[in-house]
Design brief:
Largest interface: A-B, 66 and 60 residues
Radius of gyration of chain B: 22 Å
Distance between the termini of chain B: 71 Å
CATH class of chain A: Mainly Beta
CATH topology of chain A: Maltoporin, Chain A
CATH architecture of chain A: Beta Barrel
Largest sheet of chain B: 7 strands, mixed
Number of domains of chain A: 1
Largest sheet of chain A: 22 strands, antiparallel, barrel
CATH topology of chain B: Rossmann fold
Order of helices and strands of chain B: HHEEHEEHEHEEHEHE
Oligomer: heterodimer
Number of strands of chain A: 35
Distance between the termini of chain A: 58 Å
Strand content of chain A: over 45%
Strand order of the largest sheet of chain B: 3-2-4-5-6-7-9
Chain lengths: 663, 183
């Protein structure tokens, strides 16, 4: 039967012969154009809509976009900082080798969110979780699209809470480039550059960019860090990002290399414990490369073909932790190594056989070669380095997926979306994820009623944890959402989303005297409402959002690490053509910590209200100057810890100065 | 399962090659969508631009010089909306001598031979000049629309804008590539 299905897909594609296309008028009408906001129009593709290149109001999901201008005006330094101003985002920043983003009330190791760079996943292959931190070159981002809610029906595993797609600047934009230098407290330094050239007559272009960052991020020593670490603690992060893109007519090729080197100090409490809080190193590198071919010249259909290669490797010079020497024990350093790679091909088409119907389909094949476990070596003492770990035994996994989605315009106001994706894996068998959506658009008002199913496949990181469990099944989520937005004028937008999500067969740790492993056991329910507004008046831009979220398990017990109330607001004022000011504020309500916090004697993380500001002087003979302060009132605030009995002190007042030259 | 997946992947590879082969086939490119979107941009621009003083004529005049690639898109759109409370009038001209009372001039396609003449007639006047050719923004049109990755993007020539006396919202400026030409 499945063979027949493949054959059917082949027939559909083969049926799309050029001869079958007529020069019928485009289905886009002037009424559609007039209903669009300016932003909608900017997001319209000249050729035809595809699965993600539609106006936001026509997409079967809630979508928020962080533009390059916002990244620049607000001087975002890390991906999490850029996400922190959006509704529904909460964080566990361990101020160390990783930080974690919780979207719509579902805490995780970043493996419920799919992170893409130019449409290619960059989640770590062994755990399925993406790495937060500074390794993303945000000055090279054209925009960051954040799709809320499950999207496994199009994207497969990990697209459970949502998708974050970082779209880098295209070679086709204005030729030129920029170079910038940044300096700040906590030994923060950054240098980055990019260069683009495009030859329109030949339709050929390229872009290259590079970035280096280093920072100690915060003062966490002694009492400043809640007495989790000593005064001699070391805490650094060095990030490298290199990327290149080339466009030759309908072909696009790209490569992205990211490397994050960080101390592992904050992964463990060291005061009163056996760990040393210096000389560790977590060294992880990501390499994504792709070749894409797009045929978008036909009026009725578009074809995107892509071959890609991904590598995410914990490099063999990694020192995960160091056991302190004692009078009876010389201590030891522990080295880790974990290589992983994946190669895949995807063929995706959009087909519009009649004016009211858009079909989106795709087939994907992937081969993974993944470490079964970390390869670990030990040294003989606290001071000596461990031998380089040998290559671990590797697992091979084959994945095959296909998806099909239909968007049907029922009437001038109503549209229906239905689709499903079928994933087959040599690890976890097969998963079907459907989606249904009903969209209502009238004048400036949009309503979306959505049902989605999503899943997260267990990875070797889960199977092999502790005593191991080879019987793990995918976590599955059912999601219902009602999203409303009203574009009052081109300058004023109100929106709200109500959602209810349930994750079944949630991976839960089973720990007793003989067993320490993940099992499929609990349920997680999250319900909530997000409210947001954007307003532009003359040279003033204002945004505000509020989120209420309630997350609880099968016994109605509140899930730790999730605040019920969060809110964000910000204002950007263009004082003159060359001077801009931005002020932002983030509020996170009280939340439960997974453990009792020794320094307070309870398990609550206090609420926090933070303010940040940025002054930009731009475009003075090509030069930009920025002065930025985060946490300007030096508020003492914390994030929860699921790693040890304690909490994570967050950065104190932080300031940076940046000088850039655009050419 | 492993054998099953491998079989599927082989089939998949065949399909990819088949599809890529098909994708190379002959095709023709309909431009109506592009110009419908450009007409939409033109309408949106009028929301974010202020013309100096009051518009004296009874209608808001938009001129198109060069080949009309819009079809009826401009007429369709501006028959449904007014600009600054005035009815829009679309005129198709072949010479800048016909520019009288125009608030917007759309320079259609490539007009290398006429561009200097057009700019001589429009620079320093409250006429929003909109072109669609690489390099025209630098030469002096106020807005120059370009296709970037199949999206419509635009440049704004700040000096030309300043000379025209038109006031432009930061929303338009923020979304544009700004060009600064030497005096």
């Amino acid at each position: 039967m499945k063979g027949n299905l493949l054959f059917l897909i082949a027939i559909i594609i083969a049926g799309l012969t050029p001869a079958s296309y007529s020069q019928e008028a485009d289905s886009l009408r002037t009424d559609d154009i007039l209903k669009m906001s300016f932003t909608d129009l900017m997001n319209m593709k000249v050729v035809s809509a595809s699965r993600i290149e539609q106006p936001i109001k026509d997409v079967s999901a809630t979508v928020h976009v962080i533009t390059a201008q916002q990244i620049k005006d607000r001087a975002y330094f890390t991906l999490e900082e850029a996400l922190s101003d959006l509704p529904g985002m909460q964080f566990r920043n361990i101020v160390g080798f990783n930080s974690y983003v919780f979207m719509r009330g579902a805490p995780s190791q970043n493996n419920l969110i799919l992170l893409l760079v130019d449409g290619i996943q960059i989640n770590e292959l062994n755990s399925g979780g993406f790495y937060g931190g500074g390794q993303f070159n945000l000055s090279d981002a054209e925009q960051i699209e954040v799709v809320y809610g499950p999207a496994s029906a199009l994207y497969g595993t990990n697209a459970v809470s949502g998708i974050i797609n970082i779209i880098t600047k295209s070679p086709e934009e204005k030729s030129g480039g920029h170079i910038s230098l940044l300096s700040g407290n906590f030994k923060t330094r950054m240098a980055d550059f990019n260069l683009k050239n495009y030859y329109s007559e030949k339709n050929i272009g390229y872009s290259v960019s590079a970035m280096y960052k280093t920072s100690e991020k915060a003062n966490l020593s002694g009492s400043e860090g809640d007495n989790n670490w000593t005064d001699e603690m070391e805490n650094f992060e060095n990030d490298i990002s290199l990327s290149a893109r080339m466009k030759v007519k309908s072909f696009n090729a790209g490569v992205v290399y990211q490397e994050k080197q960080s101390s592992m100090t904050t992964n463990f409490k060291t005061i009163g414990d056996k760990y040393l809080d210096r000389n560790t190193l977590w060294d992880i590198a990501f390499l994504n490369s792709y070749l894409k071919y797009t045929n978008s010249k036909h009026e009725k259909w578009t074809l995107n073909s892509m071959a890609y290669y991904r590598n995410s490797t914990v490099r063999p010079n990694t020192i995960d932790h160091i056991i302190k020497a004692t009078e009876t024990n010389p201590g030891q350093q522990v080295g880790y190594y974990r290589p992983n790679q994946l190669a895949g091909i995807e063929n995706q088409f959009n087909y519009k056989p009649v004016e009211k119907l858009l079909l989106i389909g795709g087939i994907i094949g992937e081969i993974e070669n993944i470490s079964e476990q970390f390869s670990i070596t030990y040294s003989n003492s606290q001071e000596s380095e461990p031998p380089k770990p040998p290559k671990p035994s590797m697992l091979n996994n084959q994945l095959f997926s296909y998806y099909l989605q239909a968007n049907y315009q029922l009437s001038n106001q109503f549209a229906f979306t239905g689709g499903m994706r079928h994933d087959f894996s040599s690890y976890y068998g097969q998963v079907v994820t459907p989606r249904l959506g009903l969209l209502y658009n009238i004048s400036k008002f949009t309503a979306k009623a959505l049902y989605n199913k999503a899943f997260r496949s267990p990875e070797p990181w889960d199977y092999k944890y502790g005593t191991g469990n080879n019987d793990l099944k995918p976590e599955k989520m059912h999601s219902f959402e009602l999203s409303l937005s009203y574009q009052v004028t081109d300058n004023l937008l109100f929106g709200t989303s109500l959602y209810s999500n349930r994750i079944n067969e949630k991976l839960t740790k089973e720990t007793n005297e003989t067993v320490d492993r993940w099992i499929n056991k609990n349920k997680l329910t999250t319900t909530g409402i997000e409210l947001y507004a954007n307003y532009i008046i003359r040279d003033l831009r204002f945004y505000a959002n509020y989120t209420f979220n309630d997350s609880y398990d099968q016994d109605k017990v509140t899930i730790p690490e999730i605040a019920k109330h969060t809110a964000n607001a910000g204002i950007t004022y263009s004082c003159t053509e060359n001077i801009k000011m931005n002020i932002r504020t983030n509020y996170s309500g009280e939340r439960l910590n997974p453990f009792v916090i020794p320094s307070t004697g309870d398990n609550y993380i206090d609420d926090a209200l933070l303010f940040h500001a940025c002054l930009s002087v731009v475009d003075i003979k090509g030069f930009d100057f920025q002065l930025k302060a985060n946490n300007i009132f030096n508020t003492e605030y914390y994030h929860p810890s699921n790693r040890f009995a304690g909490r994570y002190r967050q950065p104190q007042q932080t300031y940076t100065i940046k000088l850039a030259y655009n050419f | 399962m492993k054998e099953y997946c491998m079989r599927n992947i082989k089939t998949l590879i065949t399909i990819v090659f088949l599809s890529v082969g098909i994708a190379y086939g002959e095709n023709s490119f309909a431009q109506s969508r592009e110009y419908l979107l450009k007409a939409g941009f033109l309408e949106k621009f009028t929301h974010f631009i202020e013309w100096p003083g009051t518009v004296s004529s009874e209608t808001f005049r938009i001129a198109v010089i060069g080949e009309n690639k819009f079809g009826n898109a401009l007429e369709d759109i501006f028959s449904k909306v007014k600009i600054k409370d005035k009815t829009a009038e679309i005129v198709y001209i072949s010479s800048v001598d016909e520019l009288k009372d125009c608030m917007i001039l759309f320079i259609s396609g490539k007009m290398d031979n006429k561009l200097d003449d057009i700019l001589n007639h429009t620079t320093g006047k409250p006429i929003l000049t909109i072109s669609e050719n690489s390099g025209y923004g630098k030469k002096g049109t106020i807005i120059n629309m370009l296709l970037v990755n199949d999206y419509i993007r635009y440049e704004i020539n700040r000096n030309a804008l300043s000379k025209s006396g038109l006031k432009m919202s930061s929303l338009l400026l923020d979304s544009a590539t700004i060009i600064k030409t030497d005096e």
